[in-house]
């Protein structure tokens, strides 16, 4: 009987992802080809970059063949009109569908925490964009193949900085600056229309105990900017940004009782949603649990973060007309 009741509750609180989510994401990506006419191209002059390790990277000319040991590298390259030559896998999807069908033709390097360096060497990129925390071990081997820009990609400021740095790397600094300015204008406009006053949790994990993200994690930070109160709270180590969050029991989550819950993708059934406590959460009872795509977990790229705002507008502010920008 308990099992039947739980299953019935589960059906009643079906997560509102909607079958058309990825279709909407693919439609949104059409801006990639029309964002801006390519601005004045930088001459083939040397480029000096400083990444999040504090390391200086010298390029003899702007990069044209970037590899991405992170979805960010492919995302920002596409946004700036550059085709990446290799990319790591994107969560459960393999390739990031939100970047368009062209991604299926780009060689895969496997998972970002264990990229195929032999394949990377054969592809011979002229620059590698990587997530710093995933490539510390393999950094020297990667840099023997090509210069590497290692990025934190955790916070909103990390995202803005990384997009600007990529613009410098590709000789398209002005275009990158406009993309950042346009995003912040849109975010601030949405924040001005947000009534606020609601609490939120971003959860992941396929286990019995969910993982909740701290305030500094990019998607949580965007919700905070929109006047939501993230129940995950502030990070204990704001300077390093690690860890990104922590395990939280359903009983503790019930005491926090968020108004809205976002669920990130999982490769197995979320055990915590079968916990007898789950149906008593306010968000569950009010049908305010939303399943979102992998772009919420890897949201630092300009295309991904724009799609995250699309999702937030659609799910949280259905009465607000989306701001029309050239990034949409």
Automatic annotation (TrEMBL):
PANTHER family: IRON III DICITRATE-BINDING PERIPLASMIC PROTEIN, IRON(3+)-HYDROXAMATE-BINDING PROTEIN FHUD
Major localization listed first in the record, in broad terms: other
GO CC list: outer membrane-bounded periplasmic space
Keyword tags: Ion transport, Iron, Iron transport, Membrane, Signal, Transmembrane, Transmembrane helix, Transport
A Pfam cross-reference name: Peripla_BP_2
TM region positions: 21-40
Compartment list: Cell envelope
Gene3D superfamilies: Nitrogenase molybdenum iron protein domain
InterPro entries: ABC_transptr_periplasmic_BD (IPR002491), Bact_iron-sidero_bind (IPR051313)
Annotated coiled-coil segments of the chain: none
Domain Fe/B12 periplasmic-binding positions: 65-320
Protein name: ABC transporter substrate-binding protein
């Amino acid at each position: 009987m308990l099992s039947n009741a739980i299953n019935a509750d589960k059906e009643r609180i079906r997560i509102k992802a909607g079958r058309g989510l990825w279709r909407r994401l693919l439609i949104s990506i059409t801006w990639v080809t029309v964002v801006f006419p390519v601005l004045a191209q930088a001459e083939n002059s040397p480029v000096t970059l400083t990444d999040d390790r504090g390391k200086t990277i010298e390029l003899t000319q702007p990069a044209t063949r970037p590899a991405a040991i992170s979805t960010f590298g492919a995302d920002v390259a596409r946004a700036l009109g550059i085709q990446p030559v290799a990319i790591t896998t994107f969560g459960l999807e393999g390739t990031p569908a939100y970047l368009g069908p062209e991604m299926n033709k780009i060689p895969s390097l496997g998972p970002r925490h264990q990229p195929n360096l032999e394949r990377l060497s054969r592809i011979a990129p002229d620059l590698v964009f990587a997530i710093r925390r995933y490539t510390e071990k393999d950094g020297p081997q990667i840099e023997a193949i090509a210069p590497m820009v290692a990025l934190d990609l955790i916070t909103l400021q990390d995202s803005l900085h990384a997009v600007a740095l990529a613009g410098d790397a590709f000789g398209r600094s002005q275009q990158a600056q406009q993309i950042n300015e346009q995003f912040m204008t849109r975010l601030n406009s949405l924040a001005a229309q947000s009534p606020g006053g609601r609490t939120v949790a971003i959860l992941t994990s396929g286990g019995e105990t969910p993982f909740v993200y701290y305030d500094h994690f990019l998607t949580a930070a965007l919700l905070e900017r929109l006047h939501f109160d993230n129940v995950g709270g502030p990070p204990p180590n704001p300077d390093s940004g690690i860890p990104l969050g922590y395990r939280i029991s359903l009983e503790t989550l019930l005491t926090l009782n968020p108004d809205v819950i976002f669920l990130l993708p999982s490769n197995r059934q979320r055990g915590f949603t079968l916990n007898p406590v789950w149906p008593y959460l306010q968000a569950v009872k009010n049908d305010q649990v939303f399943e979102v795509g992998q772009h919420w977990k890897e949201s630092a790229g300009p295309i991904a973060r724009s799609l995250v705002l699309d999702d937030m507008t659609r799910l949280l502010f259905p009465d607000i007309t989306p701001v029309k920008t050239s990034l949409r």
